[in-house]
Design goal:
- With 552 residues, the protein is α+β, with helices and mostly antiparallel strands.
- 54% of the residues lie in helices and 9% in strands.
- It contains 20 helices and twelve strands.
- The strands form four sheets. It has a five-stranded mixed beta sheet with strand order 1-2-8-5-3. Strands 4-12-9 form a three-stranded antiparallel beta sheet.
- Helix 10 runs antiparallel to helix 14 (330-361), helix 11 packs across helix 12 and helix 14 crosses helix 20.
- The longest helix is centred in the middle third of the chain and has 32 residues, at 330-361.
- It is globular.
Length: 552
């Protein structure tokens, strides 16, 4: 062991001699001679400290040199970022302690569209240029670059989950998903969403009317129940199983917020065990759905629509003498449903929270939403919102699209490079770089007054969603573009529609209210809401829904 240590130190010193000035070696010559005289003797504490200090210093210097080379551009300059990242840790402590400040600093570094930093020795690049963000999201090539998730993602979701998939199999399953979001399917879902939201809002008023609450947890529970009932509702009918299912799913969610260590007793381990239970239950749901559809049943939830599509695909494969699609097995379908639950949970919960906060902060916009609700839905507000009504709520939909632009829930889509990638004419990403295309930065550029909350930008008279389509990266781009986009928007439109006509609410603002909280999607730092049942339906209702209607 000592001989090996000597060899490592000698080798390190030889490399450093080429990099460091002679004055440094004159000061350490005595130490080097002492080391060479040591041979196989057991070193004392002072010697060990010296060897450790030399090796530590060598590592720090090599790390700094490595970062300097990685950030170097063709023109000889370095991409902006910290002049000297903290050794070993980089920006890790700040990112964990105050992620808002860390990423905001990265955004400010990236004045020309790109910046760098270090996270626990990992070289990272933060990209804010909208065109480059879109480009990076569309690569999805195992030889060039792939999307990466949380360090514990494979433990929590499973190594073979489609979140880590690419290639023909990934394309085939995404094509199969198209049947889940047809107009007919979305109409079924929105009626289920309507009933679930009404039930929860009634419960909130019964328990908390007139009381200040941090509403984020209530919205999380609402969204969790919505996902369960819309996706597999008729088959998750045993109360005990449903309770265990919910607990297991929440264990998975908490695991994404925990330190990435997976061994018995850790939060990640509990999340992994939760996943095994959730997938087991979902497999039973898929089996029951296949029996129901094969008997001629009409689709009642998302898994029914997908089972109907998969059964058709199996028949087509049999007729062609080909094997059934790989994604049509009970386990594969359950595994995909697991990802659906996650995709619909955190991001939608964050957007529901922003909806409550932003409508409280912009009562003039909420007044116009109410005017549209009464104009479209009439006085009978108990009538279920269906697909037809949904299409008429144009301004409410504009508000939802602006909420998503103004505070995109998934702030970044990290990618890992596996080869040199030419990002700009002057800079190429080195292999092994963790790249963060910033969705938020893209959405807060180029639009007219981009830092202003303004739903009218998506109206017929401005059409900024078309003019600046390249910037609107809320639902991603390329192979991982969100197939459930319309479902997510409908969830928010339905929620805002029902809340605006059922409740009045106010928000207590604090000095931190304008900050963001990363969980890991972004939320308002606080959302202290006070709810009251809406009794006067003429109160706080705008006289004009669209002030630009009829104007050139």
């Amino acid at each position: 062991v000592l001989t090996h240590t000597q060899n490592v130190v000698y080798s390190t010193m030889d490399q450093l001699k080429q990099l460091l000035p002679d004055s440094f070696w004159q000061e350490t010559l005595a130490a080097e001679k002492a080391l060479r005289r040591m041979e196989f003797g057991l070193p004392g504490f002072g010697s060990l400290m010296m060897y450790g200090g030399v090796m530590l210093g060598a590592y720090v210097m090599m790390e700094q040199l490595r970062f300097k080379m990685k950030r170097r551009t063709k023109s000889g300059k370095g991409i902006p970022g910290p002049s000297l990242p903290i050794p070993f840790l980089g920006g890790l402590i700040e990112m964990v302690k105050d992620p808002y400040a860390f990423w905001e600093r990265q955004r400010l570094y990236a004045s020309k569209g790109v910046s760098y930093n270090s996270l626990f020795g990992q070289f990272i690049v933060f990209v804010t240029d909208p065109i480059k963000c879109r480009e990076l999201m569309t690569v999805n090539d195992p030889e060039k670059m792939l999307m990466v998730l949380h360090p514990s993602a494979k433990n929590i979701l499973g190594k073979k989950n489609m979140a880590f998939d690419h290639g023909p199999g990934h394309k085939a399953i995404r094509k199969s998903f198209l049947s889940l979001f047809t107009r007919k399917a979305l109409s079924v879902y929105v009626q289920l969403q309507d009933g679930i939201i009404r039930r929860h809002v009634t419960e909130w008023l019964g328990k908390h009317e007139g009381e200040e609450i941090e509403i984020r947890t209530l919205l999380r529970d609402l969204n969790l129940m919505t996902s369960q009932e819309v996706f597999v509702g008729p088959y998750l009918d045993d109360p005990e199983t449903k309770e265990k299912f919910t607990a297991a799913y929440l264990a998975m969610t908490e695991a994404f917020l925990a330190f990435p260590l997976c061994f018995p007793g850790t939060t990640v381990w509990k999340g992994r065990q939760g996943r095994l239970y959730v997938v087991k239950v979902l497999e039973q749901c898929v089996k029951r759905a296949k029996v129901y559809i094969q008997k001629g049943g009409e689709p009642r939830c998302l898994v029914d629509f997908w089972v109907a599509k998969c059964l058709d695909e199996i028949k087509e494969a049999e007729a062609a003498g080909e094997p059934a699609p790989a994604h049509s097995t009970d386990h594969k379908m359950a595994d995909a449903m697991l990802l659906f639950l996650f995709a619909s949970q955190d991001a939608s919960t964050a957007s529901l929270t922003w909806t409550m906060a932003l409508m409280a902060d912009h009562p003039e916009i909420l007044a116009r939403v109410r005017a549209e609700q009464y104009a479209v839905r009439g006085k009978n507000l108990d009538t279920v919102i269906d697909g037809e009504k949904m299409n008429e709520l144009k301004f409410t939909r504009q508000v939802v699209k602006e909420i998503l632009r103004f505070r995109a829930p998934a702030p970044m889509v990290p990618q890992m490079t596996y080869t040199k990638y030419q990002l700009t004419e002057d800079y190429a990403l080195p292999p092994g770089t963790l790249v963060f295309p910033s969705v938020n930065a893209a959405c807060l550029q180029d639009f007219e007054e981009p830092l202003k909350f303004d739903p009218d930008r998506f109206g017929e008279h401005r059409k900024e969603d078309l003019v600046h389509a390249k910037n609107y990266l809320v639902f991603g781009a390329g192979p991982h573009y969100c197939v459930g986009k319309e479902y997510a928007i409908n969830q928010l439109v339905t929620f805002l529609s029902l809340m605006s006509t059922t409740c009045d609410w106010s928000r207590r603002r604090t000095e931190d209210s304008d900050k963001w909280k990363y969980l890991p999607t972004i939320y308002p730092h606080d959302t202290f809401i006070t709810l009251h049942k809406r009794k006067d339906h003429d109160k706080d209702v705008a006289k004009v829904i669209d002030p630009y209607a009829g104007k050139p």
